[in-house]
Design goal:
The radius of gyration is 17 Å and the shape is globular. It is 58% helix and 19% strand. The protein is an alpha+beta fold. Strands 1, 2, 3, 4 and 5 form a 5-stranded antiparallel sheet that branches.
């Protein structure tokens, strides 16, 4: 767990039952990392920067519209770069939602599960990440990715350890006491 003045990093675990073999986990992580790298690079394009600038002081309807535009744009980029269609569609929507929410992703492997580290740029982003996990959105994304990339159909669980989330929240309180500012969007 990492806390800094500009962001909170939350580890999110993806566990399958039965467990995937190491080669399958590595392939999943490679595909998600590749898609994430392509999108991070594409975020520097003029069209994405323009849409992101429009997010300041807009209502929920406009945020949803921009998320939809980003999702379509990201999907096109992924498909043009030979990311599998089953992966590209779900990952594009997921990364669009993350982008609008100021959430950034790094995927790594640790132990017998895939661990994703999400950097949340605001308190609101932290709560939006929590919402994406508790509503099953992230689980649905990974279920589709895993089923697209493997011949098996394991049960997928996605969770944050309660201690990790509580640690982030308690650290935010201590950051606030130290004079550091968290922007609540």
């Amino acid at each position: 767990m990492l806390i800094c003045a500009a962001a909170a990093v939350v580890p999110v675990h993806v566990v399958t039952r039965p467990p995937l073999d190491q080669a399958a986990e590595e392939e999943i992580m490679a595909q998600v990392n590749r898609a994430n790298e392509l999108i991070e690079k594409h975020k520097e394009s003029a069209v994405v920067i323009d849409w992101m600038c429009q997010l300041n002081d807009v209502g929920e309807y406009k945020r949803d519209a921009i998320e939809s535009l980003l999702s379509n744009e990201f999907q096109n980029v992924l498909l043009q770069n030979d990311v599998l269609a089953g992966v590209a569609t779900r990952v594009a929507h997921w990364l669009a939602r993350n982008t609008v929410s100021d959430i950034h992703l790094v995927v790594t492997k640790r132990g017998s599960s895939i661990v994703m580290y999400f950097r949340c740029g605001s308190v609101r982003a932290l709560y939006e990440l929590d919402g994406m996990i508790t509503t099953g959105f992230v689980r649905a994304v990974f279920t589709e990715i895993i089923h697209s990339l493997t011949s098996s159909t394991p049960t997928v669980d996605v969770y944050v350890k309660p201690d990790d989330f509580d640690f982030v929240l308690s650290s935010l309180r201590s950051l606030q006491d130290s004079g550091l500012f968290w922007k609540l969007k």
